[in-house]
């Protein structure tokens, strides 16, 4: 297709439409029907529900859902665990859902965490959004809350999801890079889609390189509805907040972990549960009235927007504890099928156009992955409450239905036969109104509402909510990602879009790339100042605790066992766990007895741990000064801003490695307290951040 045959225009919300000037270059369905709009789904009103008659959307999603077998197309690499949800604050006034009806009521759950872009054989710690999906086995049926660790998404309309994923996956001709967004096609796509900027800046922050699944927030992303027994509805957003607090890696640490342990997050989750340190999250809701929704300067049905917690506080109504590892990775983790369409009475959908597309897509995907419409009979997917319907047969049917009743209505009971189940007055009822936020339900439109057109105010709010150190990480991440983009005009266009977020951010990135700051791309809507929100910063919410963290103690033959035991006791007394590292696994003869290391020095690099300490004699230190693994162990811990404990003998190793002593480099007797945090002020002396 020649470049001159493409014409560009803007839609009602400022989205880019590229159209062809002739029939030869026209975009068509698989059956040759020319497509007039490839940016918007067909819906009833500009913010109405997506219509099933949209064959363009259904064909595009249908094909996308079946592009891979049997691995998941996205979220392929995942880790999961069983547990329970406990209601801590009943909300019958807001929702009739039984799991929220009574304080103390427990509901079994199965939770799966995942990366997005990489395949099942990729690594755990790349820069990426993380999936956070929870299956609640309620006594009214299964509810699947299928979200991410970032509260917004790249796109506003499901019709663009195949394009987004195609752009971020490995490039189609060369098959690389795997599990990475630092390449041309991704940045080409998002620099043409301003709506992606909010999620982009979250993905360039430390949120995209979490320390552990146990220290990661989760979000339902979309605006849903809660409906009470009287049929009254209110908008709601769902939040998971980790009891251990937010914690992230630094980029160099993340990269080194990809070499040290491909399964770092999977192993961390498994071992925490296996040792009885059960991960726990608080479950909260943001309740958003219609009045508040109408007053906001953006549309709450837009999945690229958040409602700051300062405007709609998060009310904690429950907690989730994961207390059992899967018995079989394939049978449970791989065969788990999560569907956003799985809701229970009291929880309902809104007209969020991305959510509307997901309601179709996920069910279709499970047929492709699991090979049968009977995937709900697989134990991990089966509800734990009674279930019955008239659906029979199908591939891999495991039930043996009896009798003739596979339809209704029927009167077979009059002949003494089982007549089968019937609809219930207590069953799920869809919230009836379709006039939310001024929507007209009488029109069928392929448009995007104008209130979805502000793409920069919230990314700007996120940027201004970060600490100076976090801002440096974002700018540096952008420099790294765009430095991998080989096409110059894409780098420049991305900078012109970023200018609408913040001029200083664009300049820092441009300086890092050796480019001049281009003029800003004219926004569809001028950004407004939304202030800042401390809840968006990891460092402002960092919990100074060692609980749930893993720290390492380096020792060798001849080390003082009493000193090691004292350090171990001080850490375990604060809820942390200790991993012993030595040049040899052992058992080794030490002062006071024998000691077995948990890991060998070269195979246990310091990126695996949250803090490190050394208990060494001078002659051991002299040997370790010549050992590159030991020098790297210390230097990486320092570079990754971790606390380092030392004894008089090991101090010489720090000095020999050029370590500059600060508040995080402490004698061993102060190490347990120092290990509860990272030392962000150190970073400016270590690396050139943008």
From TrEMBL:
Keyword line: Heme, Hydrogen peroxide, Iron, Metal-binding, Oxidoreductase, Peroxidase
SMART domains assigned to the protein according to its UniProt record, in alphabetical order: Catalase
Enzyme class, spelled out: oxidoreductase
Reactions it catalyzes: 2 H2O2 = O2 + 2 H2O
PROSITE patterns: CATALASE_1, CATALASE_2, CATALASE_3
Taxon lineage: Bacteria, Pseudomonadati, Pseudomonadota, Alphaproteobacteria, Hyphomonadales
GO cellular component, one term: cytosol
Compositionally skewed regions (Polar residues) per UniProt: 17-31
Protein's name according to its UniProt entry: Catalase
GO biological process, one term: hydrogen peroxide catabolic process
Function, in words: Decomposes hydrogen peroxide into water and oxygen; serves to protect cells from the toxic effects of hydrogen peroxide.
Active-site residue numbers: 75, 148
Classification via Gene3D superfamilies: 1.20.1370.20, 3.40.50.880, Catalase core domain (2.40.180.10)
Coiled coil: none
GO molecular function, one term: catalase activity
EC numbers on record: 1.11.1.6
InterPro entries with a match to the protein in the record: Catalase (IPR018028), Catalase_AS (IPR024708), Catalase_clade2 (IPR024712), Catalase_clade2_helical (IPR043156), Catalase_core (IPR011614), Catalase_haem_BS (IPR002226), Catalase_immune_responsive (IPR010582), Catalase_large_C (IPR041399)
Region (Disordered): 1-31
Family stated for the protein in its record: Belongs to the catalase family. HPII subfamily.
Domain Catalase core: 28-416
PANTHER family: CATALASE, CATALASE-B
Cofactors: heme
Binding annotation for heme: 72, 112, 161, 358, 362, 369
Highest taxon of source: Bacteria
């Amino acid at each position: 297709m020649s470049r001159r045959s493409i014409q560009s225009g803007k839609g009602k919300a400022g989205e880019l439409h590229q159209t062809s000037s002739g029939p030869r270059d026209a975009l068509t369905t698989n059956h040759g029907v020319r497509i007039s709009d490839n940016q918007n789904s067909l819906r009833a009103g500009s913010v109405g529900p997506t219509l099933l008659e949209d064959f363009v959307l259904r064909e595009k999603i249908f094909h996308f859902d079946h592009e891979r077998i049997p691995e998941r197309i996205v979220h392929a690499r995942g880790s999961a665990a069983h547990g329970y949800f406990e209601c801590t604050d009943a909300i019958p006034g807001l929702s009739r859902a039984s799991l929220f009806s009574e304080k103390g009521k427990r509901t079994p759950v199965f939770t799966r965490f995942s990366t997005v872009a990489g395949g099942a054989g990729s690594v755990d710690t790349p820069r990426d959004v993380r999936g956070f999906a929870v299956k609640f086995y309620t006594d009214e049926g299964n509810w699947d809350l299928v979200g991410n660790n970032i509260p917004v998404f790249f796109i506003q309309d499901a019709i663009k999801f195949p394009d987004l994923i195609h752009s971020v996956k490995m490039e189609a001709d060369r098959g690389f890079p795997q599990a990475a967004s630092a390449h041309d096609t991704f940045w080409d796509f998002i620099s043409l889609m301003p709506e992606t900027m909010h999620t982009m800046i979250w993905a360039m922050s430390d949120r995209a390189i979490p320390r552990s699944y146990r220290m990661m927030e989760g979000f339902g992303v979309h605006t849903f509805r809660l409906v009470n027994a009287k049929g009254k509805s209110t908008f709601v957003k769902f939040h998971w907040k980790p009891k251990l607090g937010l914690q992230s890696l630094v980029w160099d640490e993340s990269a080194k972990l990809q070499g040290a342990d491909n399964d770092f997050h999977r192993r961390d989750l498994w071992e925490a549960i296996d040792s009885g340190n059960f991960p726990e999250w608080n479950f909260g809701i943001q309740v958003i009235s219609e009045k508040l929704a109408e007053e906001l300067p953006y549309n709450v049905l837009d999945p690229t927007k958040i409602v700051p917690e300062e405007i709609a506080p998060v009310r904690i109504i429950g907690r989730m504890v994961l207390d059992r590892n899967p018995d079989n990775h394939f049978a449970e983790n791989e065969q788990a099928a999560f569907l956003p369409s799985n809701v229970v009475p009291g929880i309902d959908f809104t007209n969020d156009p991305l959510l509307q597309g997901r309601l179709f897509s996920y069910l279709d995907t499970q047929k492709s992955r699991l090979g049968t419409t009977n995937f709900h009979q697989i134990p991990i997917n089966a509800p734990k409450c009674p279930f019955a319907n008239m659906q029979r047969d199908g591939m891999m049917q495991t039930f043996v239905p009896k009798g003739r009743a596979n339809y209704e209505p029927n009167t077979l009971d009059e002949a003494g036969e089982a007549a089968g189940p019937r609809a219930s007055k207590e069953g799920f009822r869809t919230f009836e109104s379709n006039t939310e936020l001024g929507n007209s339900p009488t029109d069928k439109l392929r448009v995007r509402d104008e209130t979805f057109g502000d793409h920069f105010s919230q990314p700007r709010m996120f940027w201004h909510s970060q600490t100076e150190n976090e801002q440096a990480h974002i700018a540096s991440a952008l420099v790294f990602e765009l430095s991998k983009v080989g096409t110059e005009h894409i780098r420049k266009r991305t900078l012109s879009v970023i200018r609408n977020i913040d001029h200083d951010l664009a300049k820092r990135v441009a300086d890092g790339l050796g480019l001049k700051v281009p003029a800003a791309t004219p926004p569809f809507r001028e950004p407004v100042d939304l202030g800042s929100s401390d809840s968006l910063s990891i460092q402002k919410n960092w919990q100074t605790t060692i609980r749930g963290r893993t720290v390492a103690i380096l020792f060798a033959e001849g080390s003082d066992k009493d000193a090691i035991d004292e350090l171990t006791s001080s850490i375990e007394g604060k809820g942390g766990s200790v991993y012993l590292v030595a040049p040899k696994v052992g058992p080794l003869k030490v002062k006071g007895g024998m000691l077995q290391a948990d890991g060998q020095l070269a195979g246990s690099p310091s990126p695996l741990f949250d803090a490190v300490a050394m208990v060494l004699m001078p002659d051991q230190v002299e040997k370790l000064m010549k050992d590159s693994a030991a020098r790297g162990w210390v230097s990486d811990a320092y570079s990754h801003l971790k606390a380092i404990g030392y004894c008089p003998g090991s101090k010489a190793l720090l000095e020999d490695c050029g370590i500059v002593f600060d508040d995080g480099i402490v004698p061993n007797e102060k190490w347990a307290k120092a290990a509860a945090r990272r030392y962000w002020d150190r970073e400016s002396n270590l690396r050139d951040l943008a």
